[in-house]
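Entry 14. Structure prediction run on the chain below.
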Amino acid sequence: MAKRCEGRWDTSRRANRVCMCFRSMRCEPVWCWLSVSVAEKENEITAVKELLTPVYVKDRVWTADAMHTQKTACQCIDQFGGKYLFFFKDNHPTAHEDLALFFQDPDADQSTWGFFSQTDKGHGRLTTRTVRTTTEMNDWFASEWTGIAQSFQVIRTVKRKRRKVIEQAEAQEQTPAGEQATPGSQQAPVKHTPKAKASRKARQVIFVEETSQQIVYGFSNLTPSQAGPQAIATFLRKHWAIENRLRLSARCHLA
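Output returned:
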C-alpha cells in the first residue's frame, strides 16, 4: 500500500513545527507519527532527516519534491534498504543540464532506452505523458548519487480548448430623413447627401486549441527490472496527484 509522509507548518506557536504523518493514497485517515521542531533558520529539508531511519525507509519507495533531492538522503535510503525516485531541477542545474543534453541529442542510440506513453482525457483537456528511461548515465552520476540505477525524462503535453469571443463590426445602411417621401406630396429638390452607415458589433464564439508542455528529469535506484517506464510514470502520477489535491507547503511522499 502506498503511503504518504506529510509535513505541515503550525503557525499557532512561536516555534515552527513540522508534523510528519502517514496517509495512504486512497485518502484513508492520517496518523501522526512524530512532530519535529524547525528552528528559525531551518526548513523542511532538516526536518525530513528525522525520517531517514530504517523504520521509515526499509522496503519503501520515496518520492519527494525537487528540494529534497539531496545526496545524503539518497545515501541513507539506499543503505537502509529503501528505494528513491527524485527530480533534478534548479537546485542541481549541472545535473539537470547533463540529462537534458543527453535526452535531447538527436544522434543518441535509443535502442536500449525504455519508452512509455499514455494519453488521458478529462477536465476539458487531453494530457499525454511520455516517459523515456536509460541506464547509460549511471556511471556519470554514480560518484555523487548513491545507488543510481536509471535516469528518466518525463514529457507532459496538455491540449485544451479555450472559448474565445470575437466581435466583428457590421455596417448597416440607413436612409437619411430628407430622402423619405410622403405619399401624395410634391417632392422638392433635395440635396443628395451620402447615406449614413451605423455599425453594430456581431459576436462570434470560437474554440481555440492551446498546447502547453512540461519536461522533467530525474533518477532512481530502482533498476529497470524493478520499475520500467510504465511503473515510473505511475509513481510520478500518484506523487503529483497528492500534491495537486492537498497543496501543502512542506511534503514528502512514501510508497
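The radius of gyration is 31 Å.
Filed with the rest of this week's runs.
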